[in-house]
Amino acid sequence: MKCSIPAKIMHSRFYLLVALLLLQPLCTKTSFAKDVLFVPRMSLSVMQYEFTKPTTVNGLGDDKDFPEISSDLTFKLLGLGGTLFKDSYYLDLFYQTSTNESSSFTAEDPAIPGGTFSGNFDGRRKEYALTFGKKIFDGRGGIYAGYKDGKTGGPQSQEQHLSFEEEGFFIGGNYGWLVSDLGVISLNLAYAKMDGNRIQKTNTGFEEQGFIIDLNGNGDTEGLSYGATWSSHLTDHISYSIGLEVRQYSFDNIKDINPEIPFTDKAEETFSGVTFSTYYSF
């Protein structure tokens, strides 16, 4: 009998191996005891969030499709983090959370031919990331790998619940150019292969019409992040950065924990915005 390892496990093992290889220099007896620099930071971000869920075929039963839904809103996020530097290596921990935001959407009403229904998308964004990296090209560039967990959504109007979560490993790199003595402009690119989860709870309006569409699906998620950052010093100890970033998450092969429930196997999230960060060097 043949034994095969699932692709999801293979991807996780690959990213874990990359992280372990990068971590090796910090695991020696003396490397972490001397000359370690700790740099805490705080960030403020404004991110435009766009969400799209395609039509769910027969999502309401009796050959009734649940319509496509798209929504967009603006998240304002506060982040806290810290980085440990040792020679050309660094270890970073970061957490950020947003205010609760809301936006409305309109879609075709499957219960009324030619009709529409409106709803609200309410929720917040929170995420954390652990990153290990190494500076290269005399400190002008860097490569890194890490683990990230992010979740968007929450309780909706009419007792509905909708959320998206992605967690898993990522790898990336960056490169910067010194602009005279003013600062550094850098470009960043990262790719993530993650596990995704989508939860949807029926609102009271659909329940009254006999449509029960409670969903809890898991699938694969791919993420792509890219952007540009300007960094400079304010004082000998305080520095800042202003970054423009786009992050795209594509949910695929989503399957409900109940195989009999019809489910849209795709969904997309896009974040785009600006982040201002301040750093303190002891």
Shape: elongated
Give the proportion of residues in helices. under 10%
Q: Secondary-structure element sequence? A: HEEEEEEEEEEHEEE
Query: How many helices in DSSP terms?
Result: 2
Task: Pick out the low-confidence regions.
Answer: 1-10, 27-32
User: Which CATH architecture?
Assistant: Beta Barrel
What strand order characterises the main sheet?
1-4-5-7-8-9-10-11-12-13
Task: Give the N-to-C terminal Cα separation.
Answer: 60 Å
- Percent of residues in beta strands? over 45%
User: How much is the radius of gyration in Å?
Assistant: 22 Å
Number of domains: 1
Class in CATH? Answer: Mainly Beta
The CATH superfamily turns out to be OMPT-like
Averaging pLDDT over every residue, what do you get?
79
Outline the structure in words.
The chain is mainly beta and 282 residues long. The chain has one domain: Beta Barrel (Lipocalin), CATH 2.40.128.90. The protein contains 2 helices and 13 strands. The strands form 2 sheets. It has a 10-stranded antiparallel barrel. Strands 2-3 form a two-stranded antiparallel ribbon. A hairpin with a 5-residue loop joins strand 8 and strand 9 (161-179). The longest helix has 17 residues, at 7-23.
Entry summary:
With 282 residues, the chain is mostly beta strands. Helix content is 8%, strand content 67%. It has a ten-stranded antiparallel β-barrel. The chain has a two-stranded antiparallel sheet with strand order 2-3.
How are the SSEs placed, and which strands pair?
Layout: H1 7-23, E1 37-53, E2 56-61, E3 64-66, E4 69-86, E5 89-98, E6 101-108, E7 116-136, E8 141-155, E9 161-179, E10 183-201, H2 204-208, E11 215-233, E12 238-256, E13 267-280
Antiparallel strand pairs: 1-4, 1-13, 2-3, 4-5, 5-7, 6-7, 7-8, 8-9, 9-10, 10-11, 11-12, 12-13
